[in-house]
Amino acid sequence: MRAYDIILKKRNGKELATAEIEFLIGEYTAGRLPDYQLAAWAMAVFFTGMSKRETADLTMAMADSGDRIDLSPIQGVKVDKHSTGGVGDTTTLVLAPLVAAAGVPVAKMSGRGLGHTGGTIDKLEAIPGFNTSLSLEEFIANVNHRQVAVAGQTSNLAPADKQLYALRDVTATVDSISLIASSIMSKKIAAGAEKIVLDVKVGSGAFMKTYEQAVKLAESMVEIGRQVNRQTVAVLSNMDQPLGQAVGNALEVKEAVKTLYGEGPEDLIKLCLTLGAQMLKVAGMVETESEGREQLKEVLNSGAALRKFKDLIAAQGGNSSVVDDLTLLPAAKKQIELKAQKEGYIAGIDAEEVGLAAMSLGAGRETKDDIIDPSVGVVLQAKVGDQVNYGDTLATLHINDDANLMAVKEQLQSAYTITDEQSDKSKLIYKIIE
């Protein structure tokens, strides 16, 4: 078997055999295939696409390229939730303890943030002492004893995906639905998930900017799940404006705690209840989404989810007292208010610009090696649909120095669109694909 023949076959729009896909991924991971040949194959895929079967084969080849985590020692149905990335996306911090308190084991492996999108691991590490580097034995034991654990992904989880993504990133082949879908699903399958609930973000702060793109990606991932016997549900949610109000690691932990107290932003609570209900549904705990929502509301109102979050923090070495005293979390030295320059109604907030502004303050990283500041970020005081007068506070910047302050303030001002007439609040949940 030769890589040249496989590249030519795909360039000509023909369907590759399972063995051919496994050969390409296996040889590339082993270092026996040069970058330029896999880059040529990726470009051929970009232009000619892949069939459902090919996409599933690629997913499994990448999942099998490194460690496969066996979660069978965990009692019960293991359900994983994955977000395609957004701004102010604090759902895991709320959802993991919420669903665990409802009786579904949550064994969550998460990543770090890059660019304008935040990472769950960075957020949890804003809690003093919180350890995200658990051994597999510790991870499984925590889920069995407490129903929940959240840890960073192992370095050898789907290594072929990491190599291929790095290559796609520099060869203009990132925007292929088949390659994106297989990238996401390979990591979920390698991490041992039995059932998968996907939060596919749509809008300015998301990877998928248009509804049509997001639907294609969601359908492709659900189909991969079907092909490889992993029940998968995709929820399409709005990321045209940041989710919730907080953008920044410690700030988002604070917002998550307030949400578990029942005092969080309406959109964050709604999305968590939607995703959580789907998790309960695929786990066989409830038959309908509405039944799942009611069960989760009870768990939230009783304080059980908050207690579970406190238990999660303590189990992973963190200072669980932050739940009772938010001042124990890292705090920035200064708070600067961003004022409205005109009166009217908030018609839009560019989520990507808000995320980039927070990154400029130090809340995110431009490269994987950058060190983030857990205390800084942005808290939005006005969201889409709100009325503001001249001089009202649109957002509060939490900063430790003035280095990028003027540029960040200009960036945030431009992110807000204020009009004379009130527009409807943005729809949060677009579609659920099963």
TrEMBL record:
SMART domains: PYNP_C (SM00941). Catalyzes phosphorolysis of the pyrimidine nucleosides uridine, thymidine and 2'-deoxyuridine with the formation of the corresponding pyrimidine base and ribose-1-phosphate. Its EC number is 2.4.2.2. Keywords: Glycosyltransferase, Transferase. This is Pyrimidine-nucleoside phosphorylase. Belongs to the thymidine/pyrimidine-nucleoside phosphorylase family. GO terms for biological process: pyrimidine nucleobase metabolic process; pyrimidine nucleoside metabolic process. Residues 345-419 form the Pyrimidine nucleoside phosphorylase C-terminal domain. GO terms for cellular component: cytosol.
